[in-house]
Amino acid sequence: MSRQQIVALLDRYLKGETTQKENQLVERWLEEHGSPNQEWQSLDESGKDQWLSSVFSDINSTIRQAEVKVVPLPQSKRWWWQSVAAAAAVLLIGCTLYLEWPLLQNLFNPVQLTALQAPINQKKAITLADGSRVWINAGSELKYPEKFNGRTREVYLSGEAYFDIHHDASKPFIIHTGNLLTKVLGTAFNIKEDKGKHTIQVTVTRGKVSVANGDELLGILRPHQQISFNTLKEEALQATVDVAAVIAWQQSDLHFEDVSFGEAIAQLRQHFNVKISFGNAKLKDCRFTGTSIQGEELEKILKVMCAFNNATYRVGPDGSIVIDGPGCNN
């Protein structure tokens, strides 16, 4: 994309042909850099448009000639500061164009994202272009670019995933989960979004992570620390947690040693991120022991458990599972 396209954006703004998102970007430039003197406020709309047209025309000429010129104000508006103001505006807007270049590239050429979805009852793992590893829990989705261009590495998560980020001090890694931003340089952590409970949890296993709600910093997390953010109330709670329990879903092996049927099912809920309930509450107290299950699908595991505990199960249209039966003889 050429820089002339930027001038085209500014020209379209003058003509009223820009989108709301483009308007916000241009107007932010003008608020921050486009009015170096308060006399700007005294111009009417026609005067402002005329002055801006001259400035934008000069920017276009500057891009072609690789030099900065002083742009005079329209002849009908002569103030003692006109040359200084015009020159300052050109320089400031030019600097802003340089600083905002990555944003403008995304505006004209949006980054193409690939979506990786983990089906219900199945987990996925991926190595990103920078060498970072991500494990995606069942029923979750990660959107990521094929290559990380620009000054940051950004991905989008819906659901739960465990991240082991390749260290790169020059390119912070940012995970978007709803409005929550998790920013790291190189570390390992878990993010879990529960839309039913309106919560997002960030838990750190290694390194340091900053968590923000938009521009508001919620906290800096270190190993064994967790932030739980309520998206409805916009409240954050920070606590020290058992990280092994939080990331248990990532493990490929399940071990059951003298546990109740209820406790075993709780492990399956966490491991496969699926809703499982009992039609007969008495089944929860049945004991289940001496079993290690490695890399099996959920339905195969349930068949073994139900056969052992004289129970059956059914899968609902929404993927939830109900276990029922008369119970066991303890």
Entry summary:
The chain is of the alpha+beta class and 330 residues long.
Tell me what you see in this structure.
The structure is a single chain. By secondary structure, this protein is α+β, with helices and mostly antiparallel strands. The protein contains eight helices and 21 strands. Strand 7 (173-177) and strand 8 (180-184) form a beta hairpin.
Produce the secondary structure layout.
Blueprint (H helix, E strand, L loop, with lengths): L3 H12 L4 H15 L10 H21 L16 H18 L1 H8 L4 E5 L6 E4 L5 E4 L4 E5 L7 E6 L1 E5 L8 E5 L2 E5 L3 E7 L4 E8 L2 E5 L2 E6 L3 E6 L4 E6 L2 H4 L6 E4 L2 E2 H12 L3 E3 L8 E2 L2 E4 L3 H11 L3 E4 L5 E4 L6
Helix pairs in contact: 1-3, 2-4, 3-4
* C-alpha end-to-end distance: 72 Å
For the largest beta-sheet, the strand count, sense and barrel status come to: 7 strands, mixed
Beta content comes to 25-35%
Over all CA atoms, what is the radius of gyration?
28 Å
**Mean pLDDT across all amino acids:** 76
Task: List how many beta strands DSSP finds.
Answer: 21
**Helix segment tally:** 8
Helix content: 25-40%
Give the overall form.
elongated
Low-confidence stretches: 32-38, 63-71, 75-84
Element string (H = helix, E = strand): HHHHHEEEEEEEEEEEEEEHEEHEEEHEE
Strand order of the largest sheet: 1-4-5-7-8-11-12
Structural class: alpha+beta
